Amino acid sequence: MMLKYQKYFEELGISSKCPPKKVVSKKRLAFRYIYESIENKNNFIPQYFKQSPPRRNSSDESLCSDFALSFFMSEVNAIEYFLSFPQHIKKLLGYKNIAKGQLDKEDGLMTAVNKNGHFDLHEYENVDFSGRFIIISALQ
Amino acid sequence: MESIKGIHINQSPFGILRKISDLISFEGPILSHFQDDKQNDFLFYWVDYEQSFNKWLVFEVKKEYIYSYLNQTISLNDLMLKHSTKFSFLIDIDKDCKYHNILMTTFEDLPKSYIPEPDLLFNYEIPECYTKLITIHKDDFYLQALKEKALYLKIEPIDKKHGNTVSAEDAIEFIKTVVSSYKSYVKYNFFQAFKNKFPSSEKLNNAIDRIIKQLSPRVIEAGYSSFMIGLSSDYIMDKSDSEFNEWKKNAITNYRDEVILPDYNSNAVIEAITKKYEPEERKNIFQPIIKTINNSKYSLSHLSGNIKSTPIRIKTVKKETEIKITEIPKILTQELPEEKRLVNIVVEIDKNDDLSNISKKNLQLGLLFSEEITNTIFRANKIETEKYTFVFKMQIEFSIKQEKNNYIVIYEPLNIKVEGRTKEEYLPAFYKAFQNLYEKSVINKDKTTTEYFVVFEKIIKTASPKEQ
Q1: Do B54 and A116 touch (CB under 8 A)?
Q2: d(Cα B394, Cα B332) in Å, to the nearest integer?
Q3: What is the CATH number of the domain that holds A16?
């Protein structure tokens, strides 16, 4: 299956690195930070396409994860990760809630889960998460 | 975006920068480590964004402090305010990674919000490029961190019959005295600082025991011919009770400033000590140190940096000062506390009498039955705490138990247990514990109190905040 943002990998010349090599497709319960409303159109938009410029400080880094969606393996992982940020960073990120939903094999490619329970999802084309996630708790 | 004082610079003040790794990231870097061509190390910390750029705070730090940060020995706040060069730079970086609006400034001139909270430690996966170096230097970092928060003391014999050597017995006694005084200091000050954070005295006491154990002083340096010793509290290895990290980190230096270094012959110092500490605590914390300072066999000095620093002799304490600080008022030793009993009574009163104002005479006249008891149940439809009025769905019942001259109030569903000698002590203590647990569990949704959230949901009809 084609990835939703494959053409950008080619345009930017990063298709050899994106998506990363160690990825899997799995059915998995996942947790994601979202904005105040579940209807916000930016809730499931990768960083590269959001209104603010992509956050980069070095031209020699891969943009790969800018085209992926961030998820956590559990609500606790998501809460703990958010709590570890300085207040000011939390404010800049702008997220207000944690949402829960089911990811399916057909949704895309998932990177390895790190120590904080975080992984990226590179969506396949035509995947749409609207209506598939529900808000379960507010971020502090 | 706020206007910030500083000097605008036209071109990059750095040489060629190479990114070593992102240290914190989420949807892009938040904190990144760079190195220039001279191996100087810089951190880029994301602080703001606008339509066409992100703003980064850039500051120089020594490599070993970056390792200490990754090792959770110091916080990001420490890295910025204690271990960086005085100047920092604010740089706008656009989508093509070009630098704009470079402003050289100081940390003092930055908006307060740019500075992270003091107790936030690195809590992420350590990038692979650091893991080997961190393992190699771990012991060095640990010892270095302990040395930065240490108490250095020296005792020197007054009689020079054995040169400058101190007897082993005196050295052991001296260490035991300081350790015991320090532990009493930790116990009392931790209690004072955090007594309201715990829902019951049992939990508070358990925490005090843990903190005393964690902070038990360790010898980090020693020197002989005269006896010199560096003592420090390990606030690093045991990661439990991390919410008290900042307090734990500064405990020994606060002890040094408050117990070892003050001029005991100053009235202001005596007043401050007697105001802050109860006689029993003064006896445990200050008396052993004053006796050490006044010891006839050796003199006590403080060393400011390490055991090689120039010792500054601590002035002996006048006898009357010692008495003022350490005496226990006679009233406390001679007057036995009044013994009290709990009594269950049945009284006949007039229909319109208010029981809370009933006279002693009417009480005696109306008394039909009395029975001595050791515990009773208190019921409440609502309670008024400092910040809220709680109205309950149905009466809550908490038990009041008498033990010697103390009353223990227990509300089992929330695991609240408080003590007090009188109603004026135990009821406010109960209300306070109830309110604190409510805020922690329901307002702040603290994960450690999830089980109580359900109980609050079940019992509280309304919780109305009071106007402050």
Answers
A1: no
A2: 44
A3: 3.20.170
Q: Is A1 part of a structural domain of the chain?
A: no
C-alpha distance from A12 to closest chain B C-alpha (Å): 12
Q: Across the interface, do B47 and A88 touch by the CB < 8 Å criterion?
A: yes
Interchain proximity B125–A114, CB inside 8 Å: yes
- Tell me, yes or no, whether B126 lies in a domain: yes
For chain A, the domain total comes to 1
How far, rounded to the nearest angstrom, does the alpha carbon of residue B354 sit from its chain's CA centroid? 46
* Structural domains in chain B (count): 3
Length of chain A: 140
> Which of A55, A58, A115 is closest, CB to CB, to B54?
A55
Give the gap in angstroms from C-alpha A32 to the nearest C-alpha of chain B.
12
Q: Give the residue on B whose Cα is nearest the Cα of A114.
A: B125
Q: Which of B326, B359, B394 is the last residue of a domain?
A: B326
B29 reaches A (C-beta below 8 A): yes
Sheet with B84-94, strands from edge to edge, namely B7-9, B99-106, B84-94, B53-61, B41-49, B29-35, B18-25
Q: Single out the residue of B216, B247, B245 nearest to residue B233, CA to CA.
A: B216
Where are the strands (E) in B18-128, listed by range?
18-25, 29-35, 41-49, 53-61, 84-94, 99-106
Contacts of A91 in chain B (CB under 8 A): 113
Domain of B397 in residue numbering reads as 342-465
Residues of A in contact with B46 (CB under 8 A): 55, 89, 92
Cβ pair B290, B263 in contact under 8 A? no
Q: Does B372 touch chain A (CB under 8 A)?
A: no
Residue B123, min C-alpha distance to chain A (Å): 6
The answer to whether position B331 is within a domain reads no
A31 pLDDT tier (thresholds 50, 70, 90): very high
Picking from A56, A88, A140, the nearest residue to B445 by CB comes out as A140
Contacting residues of B for A113, CB less than 8 Å apart: none
How close does chain B come to A52, measured CA to CA in Å? 6
Q: Structure tokens of B409?
A: 């109030």
CA-to-CA distance for B78 and B72, rounded, in angstroms?
Answer: 11
pLDDT, tens digit, 9 for 90 and up, residues B1-15:
568 888 999 888 888
Are B184 and B135 found together in one domain? no
Structural domain boundaries enclosing A14: 6-138
Same domain, B256 and B162: yes
Nearest CA in chain B to A83: B120
The pTM for the full model equals 0.56
The string of pLDDT tens digits covering residues B200-257 is 778 888 889 999 998 989 888 888 778 889 888 888 777 677 778 888 888 999 999 9
DSSP B5: -
Backbone phi, psi, residue B258, to 5°: -95, -25
In a domain, B332, yes or no: no
